[in-house]
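Researcher: Next entry: BamA/TamA family outer membrane protein (Lujinxingia vulgaris).
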Amino acid sequence: MTWCCAMASAPSHRVALASVLSLGLLAGCATTSESDYIVPGTTDLRISRVELRGVEQVSESELRDGLATREDPGWRAAVPWLPLIGAEHQYFNQFSWQRDRERIETFYQRRGYFGATIVSESIIENPQENTVSVRVTIDEGEPTRIERIELEGLDPSSKISRDDLLEELPLTPGAIFTQDDYVTTRDALGRRLREAGYAYAAVSGRAFVDPETRQADVFFFIDAGPRSRFGQVHIFGLEDVEERFVREAITIEPGEQYDPQRLNETQEDVYELGVFGLVTVLPAHEAREFTLEDEEDRERLENLLEESDVPDDADPQKSVETSPRPGLAATEDPDETSTETDTQEGADTDEAAGNTALGVSTLLESAQLEAERRSRLDPEVPVVVRLKEAKKYNLRVGAGLAVESARQDVRGLLNWSARNFLGGLRRLDHFNLAGYAWAPGLIPREELVNRGVILSSELRFSQPQFIERRTNLRLSASVERDVREGFSVWNPALRVGLDRPIFRKLRLEASYNVAYYNYFNVEESLVDVSTTTLGLDFQTEFLLEYLEQSLILDMRNDVLDPTSGALVALTVQEAGSFAAGGEFDFIKPVLSAEGYVPSDLLGRSVLAMRTRLGSVYNTGRDTGVPIQSRLYSGGTDGMRSFGRQRLSLYTPSGEAVPVGGLTQFEWSVEPRVRLVPNLFSIGDVWGAVFVDAATILRGQLEVDTAANDQGTVSFSELAPSLLYGLGTGVWWNTPVGPVRLDFAYTLSDTTRDPRFRRCADPSTQGTEACVFVPQDQDAIQELLVGYGFYLSIGHSF
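Model: Predicted structure:
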């Protein structure tokens, strides 16, 4: 059967009210085409401009983000299919604009400006361009400030004091009253009670706002419930993973004092097993809304809640419903989606007074009765762990382009992984890359370019809970063909490692590594015996064997985009002949640190800092230190005004090839400031300026060894040898990570630094007898362009 709808004609640029009502009466009709449907109130006028006047005390960008009426995206609407950039046209809708007027006033009320009003508006049509501009003028008025804060219902015998609860909360007497601060304070009070061991703690409240005096009285009602301890742990959602492995990762023991931090730690421990896409750990009374796919699991959870006799209203976010205080406007506890504010005057006020003659006393009495009932809850709290296993197999195919001053390449990627491989939480990953590379790049003279196919294949295997519950086994085997400045290389390698957390934020890693290197297409100056005065001899074929230990303290709040916390890591390598006949003996310690300090000084901002200090000590045979084990700087993870590994010592003759050094010191300071919040509803745009400083020196740091032929350098020599660079960057936080663009410029003069100048007599390199060749004939100076440009996903640190 076909249904049809009739609709009165209307001007093309607006919808008549009668037509809208007709649509409402004919709600049962449907058109034959879904595309024929017109949203009531919509016009064909594109919104050319939305002007908000009088906005001074609040963020205009946040206000605009909350409105449905938005400016047309212009040219971006021509490419709506383009990710991140594309957008749809914005047409003026009369009904949406009426709701936006209400949203503006609500926006101000939530921020403490209860008297804010729209004093004028104008909607100007331009028939020639088929557009409309909207202009409103807002009178913000004066903010409402907090007169007093009362806390009721706290048991004097409680383990937590009133001062502890109220310490450093957003709401303070004299501050502007905002809905967000009110909710944040209420939630913080409940969280502090739960952290003190009161699992069923609930905090409700009421804020009474006087629009005439612009003052607010805030009351919070504490319902702590019994002091609690952990009960049994119940696991739901398992399919292929055996339950015993999950229980090994859970350290909560029945009878221990309740602590919500232990729930968070358990969630992290279970997630780190690497086989779950979703992990949630909650006390049973907060797990009622869990969605479980398995019918048996659903029945188990329902039976658990019934046996535990957990009341439906034991949710700590639930509020005591009360009536407004007589004669005042009342702001109720907002739920997760809305905030209701009522202003009662005249008869409404009288009615409210009649219904709640005792005002706050009535609210307190109700809260006390509720608290007495809830104090009889079972202090032993069951814990519910909800799991959803990740996909067992994953396959990823991609392509990429890497561009840097020292090397460019095009590549294709094929990676696959298997979780819970053969059971037992094992994981197997295979990473494959194939492409073509140019080094140092496409721009230099043809004879300077080393080019060729690049290949990489790595197989990784991991076994969590190896030997004991917190130790992980890591195995990897790889083979690589790479193209670099001055050489190409084949490199098969094997790694066997163990890692284990010592404390929550402190991790220890240890590994055995063996690698074979076969260099070809080698630049002659690297193997020319006349260059041995540099002391960093080059070998075309060798076996490297070493042990490595790392101690890592990670207190960052986020791995990809940290905004607070710190990371400190100490890594030590010991090369020798252990099992496969390694040909080198050296010790290589490297200490690095990162720090992130958030601030509101310039809006939302972060001061990011990093430093790194390392040295290589030749401890045995006269084979020196291989080129890939020496220290370099430059590129995205070093001094950014130099290309990758360009801050280095160089071969003293022939083509300029970086060969590293034995001591490295770096530091960077980078103030980061948010520029645009939530651009295109995708993520924030940030900007930064940064200062990088770094040095690479030939000698070993402070300590000499019998096999050392490079001399030593002291700590006092590090600062005078530093090179400095200044740069700026901008990035967009997207779902794949920060997409970042950086530019850096070298401030220091490298033309006078003997590390970056050739000597007319190569045998005098590094001595006072060196006479520099003319700068325009110096191969090293040709490579040091003085600036760096990077496009990447992720931060340098």
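Model: Note for the record: The chain has a mean pLDDT of 83.
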